[in-house]
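Recall the central idea of this unit: under ordinary conditions, the amino acid sequence of a chain determines the structure it adopts. In this exercise we apply that idea directly, starting from the sequence alone.
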Amino acid sequence: MDENIVWHNYATTKAQRSEQKKHKPAILWFTGFSGSGKSTVANALEAALNQQGTHTYLLDGDNVRHGLCKDLGFSDEDRIENIRRVGETAKLMTDAGLLVLTAFISPFRAERDMVRNLVDDGEFIEVFIDTPLDVCESRDPKGLYKKARAGEIKHFTGIDSSYEVPNNPEIILDTSKNTLDQSVTQLITYLKQKHII
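Accordingly, the structure predicted from this sequence is:
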């Protein structure tokens, strides 16, 4: 890092921002195959939290590729950079006192662990959407599996690119077994048990 770049400390702290919002900051990191239900569950959870007065922001994989990460492709190197950028953005948002929800395939453990290490203990909640690949492929909401099977999309997770299952996720959900309401309830229960909300 350039020696002319100096970190500035500010008068207002993360703890003060959190106190103002009446809940703790954290990152709920939704990971799993395409079509597993990450965005659907994260979106429903954010709506429920918003109704309760919780200050949130949802970072979604497709949406950030329209701006923050629009210069990146889907090679392993680009996927790693994509998660690095999102992780740093989520860290800033937790510093602002927000409860950040992120919905990204994020196939590699090392990158998910990198984001975990950016924030304080207890502020990274890995939510593994453990929906079986065959169920995700049968849903194929964007038609991506069909294109990947036809060779039209390269480096597609679960087809010709690997997914590393989380070793110790805080929460595991299977949207082929749980209803959307059940998934949201399980997540809210966890957040209350951990005194985040």
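The chain has eight helices and five strands.
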